[in-house]
Amino acid sequence: QVQLVESGGGLVQAGGSLRLSCAASGRTFSNSAVGWFRQAPGKERAFVAGINRSGGTTVYADSVKGRFTISRDNAKNTVYLQMNSLKPEDTAVYYCAARRVDYITGATNSLDYDYWGQGTQVTVSS
């Protein structure tokens, strides 16, 4: 079992930056691939970024490539999402999710993930 807690959300102006953290408990977290998703009001939950167990493989949605960076520190049981050059359309609740497997390739659907955090709100003002 893995429990996930997101933090770092907030209100930021367009062009600004935020770093989200996903802290995990559970001894299997270091063996898990992890993803970030987001859900804006009235929209479906969408994949943002993902990282494999070692951190050697990352994947991004086209909408955030070049602006967001996912990373992890397995010693701290934490995954990060560095978000730069934020846009109003990035406004959403951001969720961290973990898989029972260690690979991330192809895992862009919420159904690919087994554990979820409660989410953290990110609001980007224009």
Which radius of gyration do the C-alpha atoms yield?
Answer: 13 Å
Helix content: under 10%
> Which percent range describes the beta-strand content?
over 45%
Q: What's the end-to-end separation, in Å?
A: 40 Å
What global shape is seen? globular
The main β sheet shows up as: 7 strands, mixed
What does this entry look like structurally?
The chain has 126 residues and is mostly beta strands. The protein starts with a strand and ends with a strand. The strands form two sheets. Strands 2, 4, 5, 6, 9, 10 and 11 form a seven-stranded mixed β-sheet that branches. Strands 1-3-8-7 form a four-stranded antiparallel β-sheet, with no helix packed on it. The model has no long low-confidence stretch (mean pLDDT 95). The radius of gyration is 13 Å and the shape is globular. It contains no helices and eleven strands.
